[in-house]
Amino acid sequence: MNFPTLSDIRAAHERIQPFIHRTPVLTSTAINEIAGCEIFFKCENFQKVGAFKARGAANAVLKLSPEQKAKGVATHSSGNHAAALARAASVAGIPSYIVMPSNAPEIKKKAVKGYGGEIIECEPTQKDRETTLEAVVERTGATFIPPFDYLDVIEGQATCALELLEELPDLDVVIAPVGGGGLLAGTALTVHYLNPKTQVIAGEPTGADDAFRSFREGAIIPNTTTQTMADGLLTTLGKLPFAIIQKHVEDILLATDPEIVEAMRLVYERMKVVIEPSGAVPLAALLANKERFSGRKVGIIISGGNVDLGKLPF
């Protein structure tokens, strides 16, 4: 399997640059004091569509051939990838077909429609999502762009850590959240190429800990049930990301929902920044394992800021 090289990742960054933000890196003295280390937050909550997903979707769409572009793109997603792909397609002037479970949040459906995506609803099971998508692809000839188990998407997500390490080349650790694994895999590749001494660690909710268990067992062990407020991390780990994670990730640390709420609240109060529960998981995992990071320079990727402000957990 040929994983993206550093020159592939740099080319992806060049390719998607006109369509994404170079997001800021923020710090907080107050949070550093609480954590006992120096933290640099890469704020993808300020990214287009409010999440890092804009990177992978843009890269995948821009790499399509003219023939593929003419027929558009399709995916199944109830979250940020749906909006990111609809937006990338709209920017490229091509159609997008988004299969969404009937119970997907209204705010996410609104975002997809706003970007000109055609929503096809299905029952909220993985099987229904997949069979509905197959029918859509057959009907339209659109190219399926998966949310994380796809090299062009991983390559796009890798550009986030590229920006972070260009700014801060000497970090001791970079922590990213893990759900499907696209962001973590991309981060691990970039860090490995630019500074192999920097450790890559993932944060994951205890209520959806398939990556944690898979990492320890050396084989993908899917979740049978999930229960966490970090709705962006409910997906089962993808095969391609897992292969990269096994090679280049140091460890996966868990955080409970109360710890996630605490970390989220800390960022709201001390940094005045809106982040979603999934985006708070790396900080929650760090705070639950403070001794491990004591005195170190830590980069944290805040993955997104798409949160229903009417349902804040505090």
Automatic annotation (TrEMBL):
It comes from the Bacteria. Residues 16-304 form the Tryptophan synthase beta chain-like PALP domain. Keywords: Magnesium, Pyridoxal phosphate. It comes from Algoriphagus jejuensis. PANTHER family: SERINE / THREONINE RACEMASE FAMILY MEMBER (PTHR43050), SERINE RACEMASE (PTHR43050:SF1). Its cofactor is Mg(2+); Mn(2+); pyridoxal 5'-phosphate; Ca(2+). It holds the Pfam family PALP. This is Pyridoxal-phosphate dependent enzyme. Coiled coil: none annotated.
